[in-house]
Write a structure and sequence with these properties.
alpha/beta; 5-stranded mixed sheet; two-stranded parallel sheet
Length: 171
């Protein structure tokens, strides 16, 4: 008799409890593995970010520890990531998960998670300011670190720094 369950390759990472819970509840994502501390890393499509993040909040992830972004390289995708923590009084070590959304360089748009975690406010603004990722629905998306009239996104790997920047009305 043939076993109907497919054999899982030892090279593929085994999904963790958060990824399994999301899959069992019909939330589309990809399990990318674990980091060096064992934190699950999930890849989510931008169009499913809000439903997945809402589900994770319902699961118990009540703290957005960090939101940030990075550039995979000139001509490649930009990544917006979210590190969530489930804070409970009884937990010896809080449960953590990292969600990544890979965005096209030409028009990087993604929904804001500000309405789920207010702590995303300045973090999303910084990612916008440095990488040009548009967080749709953010209540006050504007430059945070660079002057309002700055041209370009300084932390993109294909960014060319201007020869100078003239400060006006700097008294």
């Amino acid at each position: 008799m043939v076993d109907p369950t497919p054999e899982i390759s030892p090279l593929l990472p085994k999904a963790g409890p958060v990824s399994t819970w999301l899959r069992d509840n019909g939330f589309d994502h990809e399990f990318l593995g674990r980091d060096h501390l064992g934190v699950e890393i999930l890849k989510v499509s931008g169009e499913f970010l809000i439903p997945v993040m809402t589900a994770l909040a319902a699961y118990g992830f009540n703290y957005l520890q960090c939101q940030g972004a990075y550039d995979l390289g000139a001509g490649q995708e930009l990544v917006s990531f979210y590190h969530l923590v489930c804070l409970q009084e009884t937990a010896e070590r809080p449960q953590e998960v990292r969600v990544k959304v890979f965005l096209p360089r030409e028009n990087p748009r993604i929904p804001s998670v500000y309405w789920l975690w207010k702590g995303a406010d300045w973090q999303e603004r910084e990612s916008y300011d440095m990488f040009g990722i548009i967080y749709e629905g953010h209540p006050h998306l504007k430059r945070l670190l660079m002057p309002e009239d700055w041209v370009g996104w300084p932390l993109r790997k294909d960014y060319i720094s201007p020869d100078f920047y003239e400060l006006q009305d700097a008294h």
